[in-house]
Amino acid sequence: MKLNVKNIDKLTIGDLLNEEFDCECGRKHSVYIDKVIIDNGAIDELPQLLREFKLESPFIVADKNTYEVAGSRVERMLSASNINVRSLIYKREHDLVPDERALGEFMLNYDRSRDVIIAVGSGVICDIAKYMSFSLGIPSIAIATAPSMDGYASDCSAFIIDDIKRSIQSSPPKVIIGDVDILKDAPMDMILAGLGDMLGKYSALRDWKLGNIILNEYYCDVVSKLVKTSVDKCVSEIEGYKERDELAIEHLMEGLVLVGIAMSFVGNSRPASGAEHHISHLWEMMFLIEGKEPVFHGTKVGIGTILVNRLAEKLIDSNLNFDILKEEAKYFDEQKWCEDIKRLYKKTAPEIIALNKKPYDILIEERLDRLERIEDNWDSIVETINKVPKSQRIECFLNEAGAPTSPQDIGIDNNIIKDTIIYAKEVRQRYTILRLLWDMGLLDKIE
Ligand SMILES: [Zn+2]
Ligand SMILES: [Zn+2]
Q1: pLDDT digit string (tens) for 223-279?
Q2: Has this prediction a pTM greater than 0.90?
Q3: What is the whole-number distance in angstroms between the Cα of residue 7 and the centre of ligand 1?
Q4: How far is the CA of 284 from the centre of ligand 2 (A)?
Q5: How many angstroms does the Cα of residue 222 sit away from the middle of ligand 1?
Q6: Is 357 within a domain?
Q7: Which residues form the domain of 104?
Q8: Nearest ligand to the C-alpha atom of residue 5
Q9: Does some domain include residue 77?
Q10: Domain containing 148 — which CATH number?
């Protein structure tokens, strides 16, 4: 089957697995996941699944909460089916951190007779399992306990190594199980974080298209539509989250998995992550450095989405004179930039500076080239921005679901917001609305 913009929104998750698809964009798309089961009672299919895949010796990983929610049940169910089980339950007083200690504990408890890792949990547990699956060369199965983030199906994991957050190559799970009976009882702030992560895709897709317009970056309309359709589906159930409505939870979990599949299809996180994620990453780093209690990734993404969408709307409402913009674009205070990066990124500043630093003349030359492209393609930029739901609508969605909507709600001071807007773009080398505003010299002027 060839994927195109007409058929992509009619396909189920199952239709997208186990095949290499030709796509309208000219590339082939595939994902290394064999099965996704999102349904009530899905967890009961586990013993049968292990038999189907001839896996006999599972290593279960959970933390004390997820063990209680589903891990102990998995253990009992497998033992009753005469499957020899070994388990690691992380018993932390606070949240489990995906760091050197967590990986060390995994290795100390693991034995080589195991042929599959079963991750019972959400973000951190699944990241540990995906990474160890990659390192040990054995498959993993994810049993989701909360629809809280889009990493279930992705091939990278987030770790905090040497106190710095890093994204590390991993293997996606062979099977993802989302038991709606379990997911709907997840802590509400985790459900809302999943929703925030999904709403961020509107902004991520806009930024992906901007990268295509300005830098001629690869872009796939089909994958973009796949992601957009999944977010629209989550939004269509917006009043259901508060009530833990089963259909809303099911759509959310499906959306989070589909986004992971979309990332595998294009080989990077472009369809899932743009400026709203860079803002979230910067806040996360700041919290980490200051030793503050972490806030869920998706919660920050949802708030970041409102911020960047607002900037985009203001941009297309502005009166622009490209001759003046081009003249101003020739000036860049490199010293101030370095100082500000050091002030904000602290320990990670050298890395951030190395990632972004270019000789002054090249920097300006490239910026002027991009500005030229922005001017030439202004109409399609406006069209791209106009396709995204307005910041106010995103705010309404989050409000209606009961999620935080402003940086202050999660402990971000007002004085950090301006810094965030100006310097979040340095987190990644990726073209976004923030970089577009910087090219135009408007990033610190639009409020
Ligand atoms: Zn494609
Ligand atoms: Zn995310």
Answers
A1: 999 999 999 999 999 999 999 999 999 999 999 999 999 999 999 999 999 999 999
A2: yes
A3: 12
A4: 12
A5: 5
A6: yes
A7: 2-185
A8: 1
A9: yes
A10: 3.40.50.1970
